[in-house]
Amino acid sequence: MLTKAEARKVMLAIPGTDERLWFNQPSVFIHDRFLAKTHHKEDAVTLQVGSMEMRDMMLEAEPRLFYITDHYRKFPFVLVRLSVLTKKALKDMLVGRAALLATMPPIKRRPKKDAKKKLATKNPPTRAKKN
User: Fold this and answer.
1) Is 86 a domain residue?
2) Which residue ranges in the chain fall short of pLDDT 70?
């Protein structure tokens, strides 16, 4: 059994991870991709998995450990019960997922709107002079 604080410590102990807000909730990222977070309502860790098929296999194989709420029905995420989870099991899951994420190409992000505005005020467009 883990507490949310213990689970967060395990998540942040994975090399290369950092914590930032995602949907206004503290979340752990690696290689600029979501890895996991402690759920803000449930006593669980939210973990993204590789596919819906993988998620369904995990739910079927370990129903005491994994579950989902209606919110996650259409997404490749599982909730992992803290009451059943051990530090070693969480670490193993995260290390496996982190290794997979490390092989994926970097995410190309668009600049935020505010950044575009700041850039435009610093470098106003120039017009060519007519002769």
Assistant:
1) yes
2) 106, 109, 112-131
CATH of the domain at 82: 3.90.1150.30
Instruction: Tell which residue, 55, 44, 58, 69, has the closest CA to residue 36.
Output: 44
Dump pLDDT digits (tens) for 97-124.
Answer: 888 887 877 677 677 666 555 555 555 5
* β-pairing verdict for 25-30 and 17-22: antiparallel
Q: Is residue 127 part of a domain?
A: no
Beta bridge partners of 29: 18, 34
Structural domain of residue 88, as residue ranges? 4-122
Q: How far apart are the C-alpha atoms of 96 and 1, rounded to whole Å?
A: 21
pTM: 0.74
Report CA torsion sign: 35, 109, 71, 8. Answer: positive
